[in-house]
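Consider this record:
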Amino acid sequence: MTRFPIILLDYDGTLAETRPAILRSLKEAFEASGITPPSPDILKRQLARGGTLQTLFQALVPEGDEDDASRFVRYYRARYPLADAEETVLFADVHAVLERLRSGGARLVILSNKHGPTVEASIKRFGLGNLLSGIIASEPDRPHKPDPHVMTGRVQPLFPEAALSEFLMVGDTSADLQFARNAGIASCWVSYGHGAPDQCLALRPDYQIGTLEELPGVVFG
């Protein structure tokens, strides 16, 4: 029996170890912007929040304006594909776990705050596309996690007949868990990812796993 027929999967820190590529690209984007890059520890703390590039820049450069943020994002996105190709890897057993979930009847959707073309390119490179029922990623002027309008405006239209009880959000950061709470769906925190444990545990996820291999046990009961 499938406890959760629809699985919403974060990408960074949940399916793929992207942090080295992200940190490298952030450093290069700050340098290209003429800004001294924050330390890796400061960047990691911001990444643990699971926001977008714009929210990260605004948090670290509060004196910057929208033009500064847009320029920074352009610099980052110009540099990230090479870093991603050279440094990003999937976590162990991702293909096998997704195959098991799909063969058991679960529908899998990537739900990421990452730039759409970027996450799509990474998914294609790793050959995950045929296992997915959809990819929902960051788009200009569209809501992102933890905004509950992501659920009502972007997720539910894909599954108009599904009840909220059929969804499970699987992710590593407080943005994923807060989104699940805001949307009224179940959550599963992956403790091996990029999230800050104190922030994530404070949100009382419904489930917690230490490896992706444990996910089928949550989904199928």
User: Anything to note?
Assistant: Residues 66-87 form the longest helix (22 residues). The domain at 6-17+89-220 is CATH 3.40.50.1000 (Rossmann fold). The mean pLDDT is 96.
